[in-house]
Amino acid sequence: MSREVLDPPVQTMSHNRRYRVNVVHEDFGGAKWNGQNKGGKPASNVYQEPDLYGEDDEEDDPAASNIEQAPNGDFKLALHVPKSFYGGLIGLKGSTKRRIEEETRTEIYVPRQNEKSNDILIKAKQRDRVCAALRQIRHLIGSLRKKMKPTHFLAVALNSGQVQERFVELKKSILEAQLPGIDEELFISERSIHLTLGVYVLLDDDERQRALNELEACRSLLTNLKTPFEMTVKGLEIMNDDPSSTRILYAHIESLELQKFADQCLAHFQTTGLCATDNNERESIKLHMTVMNNRYRKEVMKCSDSFDAREILKRFGGFDFGVAQCQAVHLCVLKSRGEDDFYKITGSLKFGDEESKTSSAA
């Protein structure tokens, strides 16, 4: 009997799958059943397992509709990828790019850093191979994005009116109490107080514009909701379970209509691939306004990782900041300062008849 029974050939399929090709001895019709000739070389009609993850789901990615066929019959796709991902896509000495090319039987061109183009080029003899490379690149970019720090967040500004005035009153009262370990650096600026609805990683102008387009698409979520949203800001709470070792102290926000919009907006952005890791791992938005954060103090001085909030909660736990209205949500740049010392706004979704306003901010 042929030694190929003990050492059969191995066939590489898509998605890095490898399968043994069981060889039937010639006496049992091996040439017929395995599609091989007597020399053991593969014939043109050798069996190949279909790619179960190819044809059915390739069109789920909008980029697949941009695949073009060249005059010579080859297929190609120009895919926008921010330059921040190029290093991870290429890999050490080109290992990652080479692996994807070998597994999908494609050629992938990644622009150099000094080139203006942000489009990588995928080429292959067959369309489904371009789609296979597209899927692998999307998966890789998704993994790389999870490791990157957020750049933008979706916010409701609370830095005006009654809420801001009451915030200033509370800050003054807490500082006048001269509690151990409590200083002004712990407080967020009254010009920056806000409610966060989402956190994202947006790495170039294309992604920022795409995020604004997705935000505009969320306008449809307002159809059955009463706007502007009314918010009640009352009561102090902490993010952890130990008030003696607190990192974030915040004001609780109550708004049933805004909660519905926030959760639906979260679910929508989770389908875009633009969310930071924290947003991808949650099912609901916690409506809150940060009052004190130990990170603010650590940015200006060396100090411990937490502060004691027990006396603050005891004296001011039921503090009422009043009522505010939400008439817009803004896409803002993290750790920035824009007009009126609020965060730099990239674009906004305003409620009512006004259209969303965009800008070219970073």
Explained architecture:
The chain has a 5-stranded antiparallel β-sheet with strand order 8-7-13-14-15. It has helices at residues 30-34, 86-90, 95-104, 127-146, 161-176, 205-217, 256-269, 277-280, 294-298, 310-316, and strands at residues 10-12, 18-20, 68-69, 75-80, 107-109, 119-124, 152-157, 194-200, 229-238, 248-254, 288-293, 320-326, 328-333, 345-350, 357-358. Helix 3 packs antiparallel against helix 4 (127-146). The relative contact order is 0.12. It has 362 residues and is α+β, with helices and mostly antiparallel strands. It is built from 10 helices and 15 strands. It has 2 domains: 73-146, Ribosomal Protein S8, Chain: A, domain 1 (2-Layer Sandwich); 152-358, Alpha-Beta Complex (Cyclic Phosphodiesterase, Chain: A), CATH 3.90.1140. 27% of the residues lie in helices and 22% in strands. The termini are far apart. One of its GO terms (cellular component) is nucleus. InterPro entries: AKAP7-like_phosphoesterase, ASCC1, Cyclic_Pdiesterase, KH-I_ASCC1, KH_dom, KH_dom_type_1, KH_dom_type_1_sf. Residues 73-142 form the K Homology domain.
